[in-house]
Amino acid sequence: MKICCIGAGYVGGPTMAMIAHKCSEHTVTVVDINQARIDAWNSDKLPVFEPGLDEIVAGARGTNLFFSTDVDTAIREADMIFLSVNTPTKTYGVGAGRAADLRFIEKCARKIAEVAEDDKIVVEKSTLPVRTAESVKRILESNSNGRKFQILSNPEFLAEGTAMADLEAPDRVLIGGDQTPEGKAAIQALVDVYATWVPRERVLTTNLWSSELSKLTANAFLAQRISSINAISALCEATEANVDEVAHAIGTDSRIGPKFLKSSVGFGGSCFQKDILNLVYLCEHFGLPEVASYWNGVIEMNDYQKRRFSRRVISTMFNTVSDKKIAVLGFAFKKDTNDTRESAAIYICKDLLEEQANIAIYDPKVEAAQIQRDLGIDADNQYVTYCKDAYEATKDAHAILVLTQWDEFQALDFQKIYDQMQLPAFLFDGRNLLDLEALREIGFEASGIGKG
Ligand code: NAD
Ligand code: UDX
C-alpha cells in the first residue's frame, strides 16, 4: 500500500516513522507545507526530539519512508491518507479561546478532493471534535466525481517524550469507521497495518463518533487526575500532609491505580488544555452546560496551580523578586522533549518578569529562540538570560525553580550550587523531583508542591 500523511509534526513524523519501520511492504510519505520542517526531517537534526526516533528514521528514510513538500503528488499516489495537521484552539470569531480551529483539516479535505484521481481511505489522526468526520465526508463527497472516499478515525494516544515506546507497544489502537460493508473493509485495511506489530486484541474498532469522542475523553480523564491531585496538594500545604504520600496511599487502591498522580506546578503540553476546552465547547454546543462546567473545572484548577506557584515564590522571597536573579531549571512541558507548548514554565516566567525578576533559564533541549517566542520577548531582553548548564544558571541566584523533571537535575552537585548562591538560598521544586531533606541539610530553604 502507499500511505501518505499530511502534517509532519510531533505526531505525523514519529507515527509514520514507526509504520514504515514495522511495515516494509508499505511506502510511507509524510508531507507538509512547512519547507523548513521537511528539510529538518531530511537532515541529521530532526525537528522533533524523541528518544529512539533518530534511529528509526535513519533506518527507514529513503527506503520506504519519505518526507516531502509535494503534497499533491503524495495524495495522488496514496491508497490511504492520514490527516495529522494541527487542530489548535481557535483564536478568532465564534468559539474563540475554546473551540478547535478546524481550518487546517478542512484545507486538507479540500486538497484531497481537488487532486485525488481514484478512491482513497482518509484517516483522521489529528484530535478532532466529535462528528468532524461528517464534515470531512461532505467536503469529499460533494466534490467526488465518481471517486469513493472512506473516512476513518484513528486518534493517537502517544505521549511526548515516550512517543516511540508508546507507538511500539501501545495500550490500544483505536479505529472508528462506518458500519457499512465499505466502511468495514476500510477499517480492516487499517487494522492490517497495525496488526503487523500490535497484538490484534489491542486494536479496538468502533463507530466513527465513539472513536472521535474517546480521544477527547481520554485526555480529559488524564488531565482530571492531575488537577485532582494538584487540588489536594494545596490542602496538603495547609495541613502538613505530604501529597506524594497521599498519592501513594490512594494509588495502591487498584480501582484508582498509581499512574498520573504526580502533583506538579501544573500540566502543560499541546493537548490537555486544548482538548478539554474543546470538550467544554462541544458540551455547550449540545446544550449541556452542567457537563461543560464540570470539565472546565479541570482547566481552572490547573490555572490556579500555576498561579499559586508563582505567588508562593514571591511571598516566600520576602514579597519581592525585583532585581533578584532566579534560576529556572527546565522550560519544556515535561522531560525528554523539546516541546514547550503550554508549558507551565511559560506562565511562571511571565509572572516573574512582571515582578521585574532577572531570570536565568537552563533547559537541556529547548533553544533560546523558542523561549523568546514563548515569552514574547526580543533576543536582547535584559531580564532573561539563557544558560549552558544548571551551574551557570544558579550562580549568584537568589532562588532556583525546578519546572521540568529532567533526570539530570537529580544528579546535580547541590553543595556546589549552594556555595555559589545568594543567601538565604531558596529552592522551589515544582516537580517534587528532589530530596528536600538533603537540600535542607546543605542549607537550602527548599520547598516542594503539597509538602507542608
Ligand atoms: P504540529 O503542529 O507539530 O504538526 C502539524 C503539522 O501540520 C505542521 O508541521 C503544519 O505545518 C502541518 N500542516 C498544517 N496544515 C497543513 C496543510 N494544509 N498541508 C500540509 N501540512 C499542514 O502538531 P502535532 O503535535 O503533530 O499534532 C497534530 C494533531 O495530533 C493535533 O490534532 C493534536 O491534537 C494531535 N495529537 C498530538 C499529540 C502530541 O503529543 N503532540 C498526541 C496525540 C494527538
Ligand atoms: C498527553 C496524553 O498523555 C497522550 O495520551 C495524548 O496522546 C497527548 O496528550 P503529553 O501531553 O505528550 O500526552 O504528555 P503527558 O505525559 O500526558 O503529560 C502532560 C502534562 O502533564 C505534562 O506537563 C506533565 O508533566 C504533566 N503531568 C503528567 C503531571 O503533572 N503529573 C502526572 O502525574 C503526569
From TrEMBL:
<dbReference type="InterPro" id="IPR017476">
    <property type="entry name" value="UDP-Glc/GDP-Man"/>
</dbReference>
<dbReference type="InterPro" id="IPR001732">
    <property type="entry name" value="UDP-Glc/GDP-Man_DH_N"/>
</dbReference>
<keyword id="KW-0560">Oxidoreductase</keyword>
<dbReference type="Pfam" id="PF03720">
    <property type="entry name" value="UDPG_MGDP_dh_C"/>
</dbReference>
<dbReference type="InterPro" id="IPR036291">
    <property type="entry name" value="NAD(P)-bd_dom_sf"/>
</dbReference>
<comment type="pathway">
    <text>Nucleotide-sugar biosynthesis; UDP-alpha-D-glucuronate biosynthesis; UDP-alpha-D-glucuronate from UDP-alpha-D-glucose: step 1/1.</text>
</comment>
<comment type="similarity">
    <text>Belongs to the UDP-glucose/GDP-mannose dehydrogenase family.</text>
</comment>
<protein>
    <recommendedName>
        <fullName>UDP-glucose 6-dehydrogenase</fullName>
        <ecNumber>1.1.1.22</ecNumber>
    </recommendedName>
</protein>
<dbReference type="InterPro" id="IPR008927">
    <property type="entry name" value="6-PGluconate_DH-like_C_sf"/>
</dbReference>
<dbReference type="Pfam" id="PF00984">
    <property type="entry name" value="UDPG_MGDP_dh"/>
</dbReference>
<dbReference type="InterPro" id="IPR014026">
    <property type="entry name" value="UDP-Glc/GDP-Man_DH_dimer"/>
</dbReference>
<dbReference type="InterPro" id="IPR036220">
    <property type="entry name" value="UDP-Glc/GDP-Man_DH_C_sf"/>
</dbReference>
<dbReference type="Pfam" id="PF03721">
    <property type="entry name" value="UDPG_MGDP_dh_N"/>
</dbReference>
<dbReference type="InterPro" id="IPR014027">
    <property type="entry name" value="UDP-Glc/GDP-Man_DH_C"/>
</dbReference>
<feature type="domain" description="UDP-glucose/GDP-mannose dehydrogenase C-terminal">
    <location>
        <begin position="327"/>
        <end position="436"/>
    </location>
</feature>
<dbReference type="InterPro" id="IPR028356">
    <property type="entry name" value="UDPglc_DH_euk"/>
</dbReference>
<keyword id="KW-0520">NAD</keyword>
